[in-house]
């Protein structure tokens, strides 16, 4: 049964979503989606209930006064629906719906007094008013409504006689319970959906904050934080694409960007899970290796040079990189960066497509 209710709620949410997209152009990513979906589901639910009771009081338990009340409520519900979807007047549609709901409930109470447990319809207005108007205005409207119902019921103290428990009483309580249950389920479903969407948005922002947009590697900020907050000695290498300016000048920046992306992929696959790679800026990359010996680290650098020089980047010129490497300690971060720059410069002046490892840090 629980699974069936979940499927029913999800299908209802899907219908609401399609209506909002079609008529209002509002998707789940819009900040107004949750409120608008709540308004729409309330309109559809309340209009459907008014239509059901209009039919009930006409065809099943013929009672013209309540038929006219429910029929008027159904018309107001349709008016509220058209105001929302066709004219896009959200506040007006919400107000029309609230007047419809509270008005129908009040007319039922005034007509039936305490018969058929009709006073229970007063419980609907507070929930709907807060849903539609928010806490402040919903509480104010609900308070005024409660005051009137209390006055009406209070003036009949000692007048109303005990009411029988019959099918009409049962129907009223059952419908009110189901209505409040549906609204509560939808509220919880929308709350969870909003929370999930917020988590996904936060995760997306977190990834964007640490990722280079072009290559998908970590950005410079993330790599700097990684180095500064590391509690272990690491090996780092600075990579620079050889003659990259010629690639841009001869082949264009679009091709140059493709080359950078291709180099990033080769470097990432070569390093594997034993480190991190980030784009330092332009055609420069920084490589961090965890827990490797100097010999293993230099082997990685050699494989990286070979893999890039032998890789086909779809251009009619060789693509290579030069690497400067050094052992890094968070306590000597700046000195390590100066040393790795010097090592990179040494690799460049030594014919390129090679690496240079510095064993002592610059002062």
Automatic annotation (TrEMBL):
Record keyword Nucleotidyltransferase present: yes
Catalysed reaction, written as an equation: 2 GTP = 3',3'-c-di-GMP + 2 diphosphate
Positions of the GGDEF domain: 232-360
Pfam families in alphabetical order: GGDEF (PF00990)
Residue stretches spanning the membrane: 34-59, 66-85, 91-109, 121-153, 173-189
Highest taxon listed in the record's lineage: Bacteria
UniProt enzyme class: transferase
Alphabetized UniProt keyword annotations: Membrane, Nucleotidyltransferase, Transferase, Transmembrane, Transmembrane helix
EC number, UniProt record: 2.7.7.65
SUPFAM superfamilies reported for this sequence: Nucleotide cyclase (SSF55073)
Any one Gene Ontology molecular-function term assigned to this protein's record: diguanylate cyclase activity
UniProt cross-references to NCBIfam families, sorted A to Z: GGDEF
Protein name: diguanylate cyclase
Gene that this polypeptide is encoded by: adrA_3
């Amino acid at each position: 049964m629980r699974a069936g209710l979940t499927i029913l709620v999800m299908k209802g949410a899907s219908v609401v979503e399609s209506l909002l997209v079609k008529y209002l152009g509002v998707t789940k990513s819009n900040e107004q989606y949750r409120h608008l979906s709540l308004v729409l589901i309330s309109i559809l639910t309340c209009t459907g209930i008014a239509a059901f009771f209009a039919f009930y009081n006409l065809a099943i338990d013929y009672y013209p006064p309540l038929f006219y009340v429910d029929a008027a409520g159904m018309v107001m519900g349709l008016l509220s629906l058209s105001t929302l979807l066709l004219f896009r007047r959200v506040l007006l549609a919400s107000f029309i719906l609230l007047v419809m709901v509270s008005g129908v409930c009040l007319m039922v109470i005034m007509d039936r007094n305490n018969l058929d447990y009709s006073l229970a319809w007063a419980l609907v207005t507070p929930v709907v008013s807060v849903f539609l108007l928010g806490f402040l205005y919903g509480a104010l409207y609900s308070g005024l409504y409660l005051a009137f119902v209390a006055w009406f019921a209070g003036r009949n103290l000692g007048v109303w006689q005990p009411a029988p428990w019959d099918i009409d009483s049962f129907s009223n309580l059952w419908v009110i319970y189901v209505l409040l249950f549906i609204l509560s389920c939808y509220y919880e479903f929308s709350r969870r959906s909003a929370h999930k969407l917020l988590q996904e948005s936060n995760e997306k922002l977190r990834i964007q904050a640490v990722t280079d947009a072009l290559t998908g590697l970590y950005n410079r900020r993330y790599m700097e934080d990684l180095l500064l907050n590391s509690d272990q000695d690491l090996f780092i290498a600075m990579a620079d694409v050889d003659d990259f300016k010629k690639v841009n000048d001869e082949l264009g920046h679009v091709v140059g960007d493709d080359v950078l992306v291709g180099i990033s992929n080769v470097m990432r696959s070569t390093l594997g899970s034993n480190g991190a790679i980030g784009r330092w800026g332009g055609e420069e990359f920084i490589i961090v290796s965890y827990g490797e010996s100097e010999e293993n680290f230099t082997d990685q650098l050699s494989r990286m040079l070979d893999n890039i020089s032998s890789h086909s980047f779809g251009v009619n010129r060789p693509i290579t990189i030069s690497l400067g490497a050094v052992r890094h300690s968070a306590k000597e971060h700046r000195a390590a960066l100066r040393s790795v720059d010097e090592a990179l410069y040494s690799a460049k002046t030594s014919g390129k497509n090679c690496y240079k490892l510095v064993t002592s840090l610059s002062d």
